[in-house]
Backbone:
């Protein structure tokens, strides 16, 4: 009986919108499309614990306000979305409303997903209905009071949320618009890369200019500014997203997971569209003024760099393609926020592996044998040499990150 | 009683160079492959951190990467009349453990054996006839240079070997090793830079009319993306090489070249910390049915398979064959049987020099960073009337002079006190050594067998080594050391200390892990164990791959040839065996 209910709900949901009906062939096509779209959206990142059944939920998200967990989005009627109609799903994606109008937290990036076209949501929903139903009750709201009170979200939405499907810009090419749709919508790049206001909403006037989450810096991925990706070609962007590595950088941390789960599986034309969109509006890089080479921190940092870093990253900060990230003129290195750099020096980091770049090299941890001052000095040196320019790092910056890491 | 698991297509025993290469090649045939490794999974990112990899106490003194002798060791004796005793700590050689095997802690010197090596018995008989000593049991390999060359090339591309060719398609190349067999192409990477000692040696050798060349190195000269798409870094000459894992992804090993790709293949499974106890055979004794292994919980499992590849270190290859009753055990008295036959080693010689006016900065270096000459190697010189055959690779490859172990002092220096301190300060940076890694030729009484007394913790007999240096090899050692001494003398040191391999084999001091033979390849099942495809005679679905297949050892390091044989076996399985499973050569 439960199964029948599920099927009925699915059919009703589809029949409302698919005027031409669902033939077997269409059903195949729409499910395949939906599968690809869920990959584009990297739904597994929050909805699948590695090694657990697909989309059965439970991935814990640490937010500045407390813990949230990704929901079970399998078609299980009791603990998943088995009883949902398509309109329920459309409301979740476009309005941030769960079943019975319950408001979703912004960790579910509906502020981006609202741009997803209804026809794409239909495909995603059709695909999700084909996944194995898994009974797994997930308490999504693990926030402390008062954040756990969902009515607080009414005000949050008023400030941070603008509902509405993506509208193509007729002035731009079809390719650009596809890129914009993917970046602003399902790709939800801004969830990590756009700075947040005090209550965790996107500062949309600073779209994609870089942000800090859980001591990882998601760098500026616009083509503007000294710390952006202006030097990257469209091919560089495509290669990075496809393989996790290019001649400038290697993905690590949450971005390595994104590449492994999502962007390596994107179609080349979609990656190129993203690159075209991100490269649009590139402005000349303004000259920034580096910290002087004779500054005491720079002198100390240079010596530490020679001893500890130069073997891999090379004495000129060039690194080695696909293996040791280039430090000269790297967006992350030039970012105002040094948190990611401090984090990888203290705790190390491992790149993701893809079929095209299977090496998965690691940055070793130096937290155990470099002091806060050592780390600060070497990073100040790295951030202000070989054309780089960024604010000096202080020992207390390093201390903060060290304590943050210890708390986990 | 072992619990029986569902059958698989292929089991590969040992995930060092040979096993990883074969497993990866066969995985491309869509076969379901299970790789067994007695040690842990090793991985550069997790195991060899640049901030801690250069730990001399842990890796050199305490041998962290080696097999534990408590788990498995060998017994040794010099002659048939002695009772063998077990090695309770590794001395003479260093069997590896974990994925990558001994290929993690090797020095990276990657020679190809010369064309005449593969038909050594025929070649030397043709050239010297009756002069050849009856003491030696030299044999041809059953293969030849033309068959081997493509697989050496495959390995060069996999490992990113850095060097200078001396012979490309028969055209001699200036600056390379002109004694090498004709290569089909140049090395994938140029030679590494040279440090001071090799540079001085090369100048001296050149002045004496020899042709010095950069030693072919698996420590890479530049960043490289290998034939499987794995990225590697450039060697930094850090000096922590032999006995260490590489933190810079610059020393080629299975973990830096093959395994990152192999583990991504869904049809490959690695079973680590699983010790393979024996190969199971059907009642006819003509077919391997799988293997039995013990997991880390002490539980025994039987893993049936269609194809069994044994690619562990030489000792375990031979021991598994003896324990599984594959082939007839060799008996030196009756000179019958093949399993355990033609065990050989390497004959190490050197001349150390102490200078007053030189600073070699000896902490800079790598296991394969250096210059060599080949004028006194193998049969590159006329042995008529010399009373021996064979020779050695002469070279200067200074591995970094590490803080604990490296105290090179002239003979007669007190072992402690202020005179010792003074001599240490005076000599640490002012000494260098010319080595000559020379051939080791097989004899009737050097062989491997199961020990009648000593057993491992599971009750299986240990492997017994019966070995001593043959008279032929000692004469050769004296001769080549004399030649090396001439070069050393021309460099005008204050003092020269020659060391030629004389006397009995002593298992206590480290010499080299270049041990070969015991399950050798050849053209005749009467005096060899595997055919030229590394397929066991009479057991067509069993392959045994490694230096265990070498009938004797030339004056070269073995790893390049072990890897080439692995590619060769994989190629034979892929292109021939899978199409028509059965004996690929019938005699």
Residues:
């Amino acid at each position: 009986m439960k199964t029948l209910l599920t099927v009925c709900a699915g059919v009703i949901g589809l029949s409302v919108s698919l005027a031409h009906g669902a033939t077997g062939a269409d059903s195949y096509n729409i499910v395949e499309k939906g599968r690809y779209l869920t990959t584009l959206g990297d739904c597994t990142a929050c909805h699948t614990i590695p090694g657990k059944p697909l989309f059965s939920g439970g991935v814990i998200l640490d937010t500045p306000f407390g813990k949230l967990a990704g929901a079970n989005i399998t078609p299980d009627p009791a603990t998943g979305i088995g009883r949902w109609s398509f309109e329920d799903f459309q409301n979740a994606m476009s309005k941030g409303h769960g079943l019975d109008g319950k408001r979703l937290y912004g960790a579910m990036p509906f502020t981006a997903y609202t741009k997803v076209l209804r026809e794409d949501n239909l495909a995603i929903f059709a695909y999700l209905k084909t996944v194995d139903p898994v009974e797994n009750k997930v308490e999504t709201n693990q926030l402390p009071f008062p954040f756990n009170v969902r009515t607080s979200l009414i005000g949050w939405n008023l400030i941070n949320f603008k509902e509405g499907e993506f509208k193509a810009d007729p002035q731009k090419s079809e390719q650009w618009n596809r890129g914009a749709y993917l970046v602003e919508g399902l790709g939800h790049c801004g969830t990590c890369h756009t700075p947040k206001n005090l209550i965790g909403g996107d500062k949309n006037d600073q779209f994609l200019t870089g942000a800090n989450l859980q001591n990882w810096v998601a760098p500026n991925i616009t083509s503007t500014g000294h710390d952006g990706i202006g030097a990257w070609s469209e091919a560089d962007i495509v290669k990075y997203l496809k393989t996790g590595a290019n001649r400038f950088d290697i993905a690590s941390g949450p971005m390595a997971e994104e590449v492994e789960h999502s962007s390596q599986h994107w179609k080349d034309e979609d990656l190129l569209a993203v690159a075209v969109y991100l490269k649009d509006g590139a402005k000349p890089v303004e000259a920034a003024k580096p910290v002087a080479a004779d500054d005491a921190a720079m002198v100390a940092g240079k010596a530490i760099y020679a001893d500890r870093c130069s073997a891999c990253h090379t004495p000129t900060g060039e690194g080695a393609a696909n293996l040791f990230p280039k430090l000269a003129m790297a967006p992350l290195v030039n970012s105002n926020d040094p948190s990611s750099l401090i984090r990888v020096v203290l705790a190390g980091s491992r790149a993701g592996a893809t079929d095209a770049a299977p090496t998965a090299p690691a940055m070793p941890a130096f937290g155990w044998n470099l002091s806060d001052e050592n780390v600060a000095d070497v990073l100040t040196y790295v951030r202000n040499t070989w054309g780089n320019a960024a604010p000096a790092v202080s020992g207390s910056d390093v201390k903060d990150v060290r304590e943050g890491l210890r708390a986990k | 009683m072992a619990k029986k698991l569902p059958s698989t297509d292929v089991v590969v025993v040992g995930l060092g160079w040979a096993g990883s290469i074969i497993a990866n090649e066969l995985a491309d045939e869509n076969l379901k492959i299970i790789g067994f490794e007695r040690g842990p999974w090793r991985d550069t990112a997790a195991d060899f951190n640049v901030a801690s990899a250069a730990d001399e106490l842990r890796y050199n003194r305490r041998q962290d990467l080696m097999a534990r002798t408590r788990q498995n060791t060998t017994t040794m004796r010099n002659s048939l009349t002695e009772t063998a005793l077990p090695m309770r700590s590794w001395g003479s050689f260093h069997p590896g453990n974990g994925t990558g095997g001994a290929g993690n802690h090797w020095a990276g010197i990657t020679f190809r054996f010369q064309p005449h090596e593969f038909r050594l018995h025929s070649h030397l008989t043709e050239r010297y006839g009756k002069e050849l000593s009856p003491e030696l049991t030299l044999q041809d390999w059953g293969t030849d240079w033309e068959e081997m060359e493509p697989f050496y090339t495959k390995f060069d591309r996999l490992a990113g070997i850095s060097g200078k060719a001396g012979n490309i398609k028969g055209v001699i190349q200036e600056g390379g090793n002109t004694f090498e067999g004709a290569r089909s192409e140049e090395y994938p990477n140029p030679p590494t830079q040279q440090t001071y000692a090799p540079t001085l040696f090369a100048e001296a050798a050149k002045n004496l009319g020899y042709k010095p060349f950069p030693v072919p190195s698996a420590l890479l000269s530049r960043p490289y993306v290998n034939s499987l798409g794995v990225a590697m870094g450039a060697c930094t000459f850090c000096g922590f090489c032999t006995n260490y894992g590489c933190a810079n992804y610059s020393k080629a090993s299975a973990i830096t070249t093959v395994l990152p790709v192999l583990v991504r293949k869904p049809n490959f499974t690695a079973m680590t910390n699983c010790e393979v106890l024996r190969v199971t055979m059907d009642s006819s004794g003509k077919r391997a049915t799988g293997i039995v292994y013990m997991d880390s919980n002490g539980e025994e499992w039987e893993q049936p398979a269609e194809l069994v590849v044994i690619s562990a270190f030489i000792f375990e290859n031979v021991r598994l064959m003896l324990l599984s009753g594959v082939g007839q055990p060799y008996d030196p008295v009756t000179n019958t049987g093949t399993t355990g036959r033609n065990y050989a080693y390497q004959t190490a010689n050197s001349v150390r020099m102490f200078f007053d006016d030189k600073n070699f900065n000896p902490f800079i270096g790598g296991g394969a960073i250096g210059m060599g000459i080949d004028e006194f190697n193998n049969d590159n010189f006329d042995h008529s009337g010399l009373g021996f055959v064979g020779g050695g690779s002469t070279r200067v490859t200074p591995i970094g002079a590490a803080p604990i172990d490296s105290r090179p002092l002239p003979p007669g220096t007190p072992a402690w006190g202020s005179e010792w301190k003074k001599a240490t300060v005076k000599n640490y940076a002012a000494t260098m050594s010319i080595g000559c890694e020379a051939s080791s030729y097989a004899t009737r009484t050097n062989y491997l067998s199961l020990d009648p007394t000593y057993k491992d913790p599971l009750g299986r007999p240990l492997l017994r080594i019966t070995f001593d240096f043959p008279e032929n090899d000692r004469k050769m050692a004296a001769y080549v050391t004399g030649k090396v001494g001439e070069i050393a003398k021309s460099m005008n040191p204050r003092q020269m200390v020659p060391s030629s391999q004389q006397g009995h084999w002593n298992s206590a001091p480290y010499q080299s892990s270049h041990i070969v033979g015991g399950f050798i390849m050849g053209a005749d099942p009467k005096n060899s164990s595997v055919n030229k495809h590394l397929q066991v005679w009479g057991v067509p679905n069993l392959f045994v791959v490694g230096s265990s297949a070498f009938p004797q050892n030339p004056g070269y390091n073995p790893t390049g040839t072990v890897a080439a044989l692995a590619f060769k076996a994989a190629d034979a399985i892929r292109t021939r065996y899978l199409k028509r499973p059965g004996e690929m050569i019938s005699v």
